[in-house]
Amino acid sequence: MKRTPQKTPAHSGKSFWLFVLVGLVFWTSSDTFVLAGSADATEAATENACTNGSFEILGVNGFPVDWGPVGRQVSVSEDAHSGQRSLRMVRTAETVTSETGLNRTRLITELKGGVDFWYKAISASPGTNLNIYVIPINEEGVERTGSPRATFTVPEDHIGDGQWHHARLKYDYTDNPKVKSVHFAARIVGPAGELLLDDFQYISRVGPVPLIKKLMLEEDTKQPGRSGKVRVLLTNAGDEPARDVHLVVQTAGAMKGPTAELQLPVLAPEEIKPLYFPLPMIRQQAVMITATAKCGELSDTRRLELNP
Predict the structure, then answer these.
(1) Domain spanning 50-203 has what CATH number?
(2) Which long-range contacts (CB under 8 A, 24 or more apart) does 215-219 make?
């Protein structure tokens, strides 16, 4: 059964309505097959710059059109955020290739904007990062532009939680004349990990993006285990001011206490706001602290597990 995403943006990669008018099949130049007389021609006129961002259209090799694997164990999965397919990357200690990931074969020519996507992080060994990139490319089709990649790293506490997560990553290469196009890409950086990706699309602006950079407990040095405060480093990773950011901090376990809530009127792009919440309790058992920041349709959650 098709799962409906929380919000389906305009021109989503899965908005393919095929009305069969003529019972003919023909091959396209990208080695995919379509039904003649379908509505694909209409869709193509308004398609997103990140074509086939939901990995639904496969080539004759069984891999999603307009995308290319980097290394081995990069394939299609039926565990999808929406539709029937997602993209699966797996890296193990036995993987022989130096990289495991995904690149575009049809580059994005928009040099400013963002990438909107969904991910499910299955696993990652210690020291492994699951990264989404925007990679600047020069006129020769290689990365040598002098500009860094825009990078999103999957938060550690999202790994293994079994959930699909929504994220956005902004980029701007308009000030570098060497950059002619970009890859939307992904890599497993480290010894071992597994990552599912779905519903990629280009957006002209990412808007406000709440991001909890760090969640930690600062215990009172004079009363360790008996008194302290939760420290939250909150930022806006977007390209527009975040207004009415709602932050909730909860504790569960031996130090379970009342929910702390805070409303920030505005948070500028890249502004970092340190926030503190007192915890005057005794820690005798394992404790879970959860912080969630929400602005509009996007939210970010971090969890911190503490042991006695």
Answers:
(1) 2.60.120.260
(2) 215/289, 215/291, 215/302, 215/303, 215/304, 216/304, 217/279, 217/289, 217/304, 217/306, 218/276
Distance CA 64, CA 98 (A): 22
| 3-state SS assignment for residue 108 | strand
Q: What is the pLDDT of residues 72-96, one digit of tens each?
A: 999 999 999 999 999 999 999 899 8
Q: What is the mean pLDDT of residues 159-182?
A: 97
Where are the CATH 2.60.120.260 domain residues in the chain?
50-203
What length does the chain have? 308
Alpha helices in the chain (DSSP H): 40-45
> Is there a contact between 212 and 232 (Cβ–Cβ < 8 Å)?
yes
What residues have CB less than 8 Å from 36, skipping those under 6 apart? 21, 22, 24, 25, 26
Q: pLDDT band at residue 97, thresholds of 50, 70 and 90? A: confident
Tell me the CATH class for 210-306: mainly beta
Running DSSP on this structure, what letter comes out for residue 12?
-
- DSSP designation for 56: -
